[in-house]
Amino acid sequence: METSIRLVCLDLDGVIYVGDRAVPGAVEFVSWLKERGISYLFVTNSTLRPRSFYAEKLSSFGIYATEEMIITAAYATYRYLLHRERRKRFTVFLLGEDGLKKELSQLNCEFLSEEDSRVSDYVVVGLDRKITYEKLCKATRDLLSGARFIGVNNDALWPVEDGFMPGVGMFVAALRAASGRRPYIVGKPNTFMLKLAMEKADAAPPEVLMVGDKLDSDILMGNRARVKTALVLTGVTSEDEAYAALGMLKPDFIVRDLGELLDLMARAY
Ligand SMILES: [Mg+2]
After folding, report:
1. CATH topology of domain 94-185
2. 7-45+188-268 has which CATH code?
3. How far apart are CA 166 and CA 91, in angstroms?
4. pLDDT value at residue 88
5. Is 59 left (phi over 0), alpha (psi -120 to 50) or beta?
6. How far is the CA of 195 from the centre of ligand 1 (A)?
């Protein structure tokens, strides 16, 4: 492992914890980064919870983290729209819950209800557990009338304690089918969140290591942004899948868990 790494970006689920349990080596790995003065940030496709929730959850494991160190796809969507709409007031039709709405409320925007006959400037799609036919109808009509189509992420599934729930990707696919429109997806594997992280830490791609458990999101994002990548096997990807995918997706390192990554990095320092 090279010694030029100045920023480590960590996915949360399947990397730092699974459910409510920290993954072996996670606490030690992050403490080591902190001692060495290597910056670290957390990058997650999550849309439901506010950033403070993750900071508190990490702190409860003994991992030092503040709200500013968490980049969720919901927060990234706020930053993306802020970047696009600096001056004028605009309208949003949102499929999503309070966490996402809270992030977007920092913008100079008005949220339209499903009864509003005006066409929104943006249809923003996150995880919405109170989805109705009326909301899908409003979103479809706005998309057919030219509203911009933004998906917070495109994850088909959402991992929970006892298996999986359908994710944002299901809603995105439904609206794509109805409207024939293609969405802009803010979350992984888009490099937008990683760019936000690099900007925050003032780091260039060769100085960055992205650590994740998912090949088609964490590692693909890292490959696209030309940063170094490490795949851990504590989440959704098995060892067989990891090696079968080599050639298309190239993690620079495949490690059992963060404990093994710590050994690799500590040897180089
Ligand atoms: Mg993960």
Report:
1. Rossmann fold (3.40.50)
2. 3.40.50.1000
3. 27
4. 83
5. alpha
6. 18
Q: How far is the CA of 143 from the centre of ligand 1 (A)?
A: 30
CA of 214 to the centre of ligand 1 (A): 6
Task: Say how many Å lie between the CA of residue 139 and the centre of ligand 1.
Answer: 29
pLDDT value of position 119: 98
Distance 201 CA to ligand 1 centre (A): 22
Residues in contact with 140: Cβ distance below 8 Å, sequence separation at least 6, in sequence order: 175, 178, 179
The 3-state DSSP class for residue 138 equals helix
Distance 91 CA to ligand 1 centre (A): 32
Distance 187 CA to ligand 1 centre (A): 12
119-151 per-position pLDDT tens digit: 999 999 999 999 999 999 999 999 999 999 999
CA of 237 to the centre of ligand 1 (A): 9
Residue type, 249: L
Question: Phi and psi (nearest 5°) for 257?
Answer: -160, -175
Closest CA to 109 of 77, 144, 139: 77
Task: Please indicate whether the domains covering 7-45+188-268 and 94-185 agree at the CATH topology level.
Answer: yes
